[in-house]
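Why do we care about 3D structure at all? Because function follows from shape, and shape follows, mostly, from sequence. That is the central idea of this module. The next example makes it concrete: a single protein chain, its amino acid sequence, and then its structure expressed as tokens.
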Amino acid sequence: MLRHDNIVNVLEVAVGEDSMDEVYMVMEYCEQLRVRFTMSQTDFGMARSYSIRPLTPGVVTIWYRAPEILLGSKHYTPAVDMWSAGLVLAELIQSEPCLTGERALDQLSLVVKLLGSPTADDMAVLSAMGCPDLVRWRRESLASGRADNLERRFLTDSTMETINMLRGLLAWNPQARWTAAEALGKGKGQISEVGERWWKERPRAVERELLPTFPEIRNGASLQSLQHRGREGKMEGSQAGTKSSDNGYVFDFDEERNVHRPSKRARAR
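And the structure:
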């Protein structure tokens, strides 16, 4: 059983009182929006040890599914996980899912709009992977001549190093996608150097204990309540003569860019 700080642990496995077909997994409590900036993963139901063999098609939630899986390949590689990681990063940048197609062809069309049309070399690699839906996609709905729109969509909210990271993770050709080691900047190649520069950008990573904390927000919280909470924080900050975050927290920065632990102020009643 997996045990890790970033994995929601399974505490018990229980079966139904009347039927052994009813299986329940008892998991530890996890905040829906982590209040301490800790990302936790769960639901490894279809996870398998990787080996070179025909694999299950149609895995991964469609919004995070790599092109080769969208096209029906059973011979994909760990590069599909790097594609998903790229879309998670894009979602963190803009605070909303990046590609939200309802069907495989819809999703592929959104990928084309974001990354531009695949090149002849990209198509050759996908064809060699045995993607059964490639011919139909090319014939019926593949738009040609589309340009890459990563910079237009993300540069306002990020940096060129971030664009380079996204471009490395979101490559049509799975063989050209960055590996995990390259994305982490662990290695001696040129790609690793590009990845390392992204990790060195400000704000730099800090120990988790030094990060601010925020109230937990669950699906039940309405937009109006969140906006009201933000107005309270801004009002409170102006009364105190300091800048306040949208959640009623005050951040103090000294001239040496050191960040002091934020203190929570009582909200106005």
